[in-house]
Specification:
CATH topology: ABC transporter involved in vitamin B12 uptake, BtuC
CATH superfamily: ABC transporter involved in vitamin B12 uptake, BtuC
Largest sheet: 2 strands, antiparallel
Structural class: mainly alpha
CATH architecture: Orthogonal Bundle
Oligomer: single chain
Shape: globular
Helix content: over 70%
Number of strands: 2
Distance between the termini: 23 Å
Strand content: under 5%
Strand order of the largest sheet: 1-2
Length: about 350
Amino acid sequence: MLDRSSSGVRPTRLAPGVLVVAVVGLVAVMAVSTLLGAANLGWTRVVAEFWAQVSGGVSPLSSTEAAIVWEVRLPRVVLAGLVGAALAMAGAAFQGVFRNPLADPYLLGAAAGAGMAATIVVVAAPAVVGWVVGPLPLAAFAGSIGGVTLTWLLGRSAGGGTAVLLLAGVAVASFLTAIQTLVQQLNTDTIRQVYSWMLGGLNTTGWREVLVTLPYIVLAAAVLCLCARLLDVLGVGDDEAASLGVHPGRVRIVVLLAASLATAAAVAVSGLIGFVGIVVPHVVRLLAGASYRVVVPLSMLGGGMFLIVADHIARTAFAPAELPIGVITAFTGAPFFLLVLRTNRGQLR
């Protein structure tokens, strides 16, 4: 909550105890998801494997079983945590900038740009070997950033402002989606692969995706955490924020760029996973308060927990078959979205 007084804005600080609980919760979720999986290795044997690596003892796992733990489960859990953190903190940032409780990381053409670029790569790119990252995630990253850039340029040319930027995002997303649909219809043999990517997934067989995505998400997280207090200040209005020495336009640009970078990094390795950026920030507000000094860091941790749990359900519920993770988040997020819409209907008019 913001304390608006004559002396200025005093946002709520993140209590150390709350932060410790959130970190412990994230570590616990990561541990459970690593110990249990579709392959029945026995959680006690997996614990013994970790202890063997630390102490130099003998592992009870075979080389194949150890590879499942170190090259499949653990990287996937870490990647799910990073993607969830990126989408949740981006959602919180967009909601702060636009003062709209339904703002989502896929605003401003990020998802449409990524989907269009990924579709073109699936259709046109030859098989490439030896790349640090495959052409599809690279194209998704570039398309996501390109969509946001096009939206920003269009919104700026139309006079700027939050409402204009949102309308520009709708226009750009519609245009890019039309291109994607056209490419799909001209190449119907690739539709299944494209839709599989669009439904979201965290398929990884190593640490490559984690290492490539990590720097972008860390950079975006640092910027958004540093800007959290400024988002609180913007909540009192641009005129009052300016009187306190804050430049609202600059803050919005910086936050939008950081949130878009986090979204692009997540989309590049996971496809399109919806509702994380809506569900998690709202749960954080309900439990811990509305100050962005609280919402942004806790959304990062909560987003990581949420997506790790969702991915665990996706890969174990119907094992050995695997559900798209976007299906799991939609089952949770769609009803929550309707609840938020109903709760905030007066604010959205």
